[in-house]
Amino acid sequence: MLESIVSHFASPVLSIRISDQNNQVMVQQGDFDFGQIVWQQLAEDTLAYETWRDASRHYIQAASWMETTSGRIYVETIRDVTSVFMDRQHVFSFYRKLVLVMLVINGIVMFLITAWALSPLKKLAKTTREIAEGKYGERVLMRTKDEVGLLATDFNQMADRLETKIRELEAITASQRDFIGSFAHELKTPLTSIIGYADMLRSKKLSEENKILAADYIFSEGKRLETLSHKLLDLLVVKNHHFDMKLVQIKELLFRVKQTTAWILKQSGVVLHIAADDAQLNVESDLLQTLLINLVDNARKAIDSDRVDREVKLTGKRVDSEHYLITVEDHGKGIPEKEISRITEVFYTVDKSRFRGSGVGIGLALCKEIVELHGGEMKISSRPGAGTRVEVKLKGGAGDEGSR
């Protein structure tokens, strides 16, 4: 009976053995060796098992007991579970490969995420280096709304303010440099006249009256240059500096301009004609005189030496009760229309081959500043070969009834 039951369950991978309580084998089927007496480990438990292996195979040996009418019997089985262990090994191998692949994929993903997350910071660092190299117009182009985007926005705002400040400093530096050049130019004309009068005192026999007049002119022009230098330096440092404006008889000022330029005009063979309406203007007289001297001197330089009508016209006219127009006109070389917009740039010369050494246009930048300081307007019209006309419109112009 037991043998038929055991043979029914036995297989090539399963061996069965039934023993009595004295360890006497009652039935055994299968090729496996029951070397281990597992049932002795049962004690009061109804089941015991252990796994073991030989050189290349894995086994699980289990034992259980039951009570019968003839006493307790023990049932033992040995099953070859090598396939289970092989499957487990395959699973572990697959798992290790999967983990390795996942680690590689995770590393790639983390690299891409890190690169994506750090790319805005790299752009920011690159832009920072470019700005440090002087490319002040560079900006960080980001449209994100996260913290990095906010940082980029703040950085761009800072760069905008920095660029503005740097441009302002560059403009101030350029303005100071240009004004120094203009100031040196403005000293040239009165100094030439002073030197001329001094040379006349030194080399010619003059009457006592003429000596006094020449010395008085040298002294007055020297004092004016001293005052002018301080005021021009103030204009250089602070363009918005407040100058004391005073009522000035404009006709008298124009004649002082004629007196100042008389020597240098005589040396050039140029005649200055003055015609002016009486009027009082609220101006800074030294600066306005410098403006007119510069315009007259530029007109003188523009007249060719072979012209018959070597003359410059300086006129003053009341336009209305609120404006006074001063005009300086010559019949010199003229200026091409395309150059007119640039001649108020400091040191800009219309034609260096024709005007070399004349200084044409150098002082016009300062003229423009002086006109703007007085709240006026300066208009230049010219045609090559026909001459140039400069109009300076100033506020004021009420007639001086007492001088008529």
Number of strands: 12
Q: Within the CATH hierarchy, at the fold level, what is the topology of the domain at 241-403?
A: Heat Shock Protein 90
Strand content: 15-25%
* Overall outline: rod-shaped
Number of helices: 9
State mean pLDDT (0 to 100 scale).
Answer: 80
Indicate the CATH architecture of the domain at 241-403: 2-Layer Sandwich
Largest sheet: 5 strands, antiparallel
Structure description:
The protein is an alpha+beta fold. Among the domains are: 2-80, 2-Layer Sandwich (Beta-Lactamase); 241-403, Histidine kinase-like ATPase, C-terminal domain (Heat Shock Protein 90). Helices cover 50% and strands 22% of the residues. The protein is built from nine helices and twelve strands. The chain has a five-stranded antiparallel sheet, covered by helices on one side. A five-stranded mixed sheet has the order 7-9-10-12-11. A two-stranded antiparallel sheet has the order 6-8. Strand 11 (377-383) and strand 12 (387-395) form a beta hairpin. The longest helix is centred in the middle third of the chain and has 57 residues, at 147-203. The radius of gyration is 55 Å and the shape is rod-shaped.
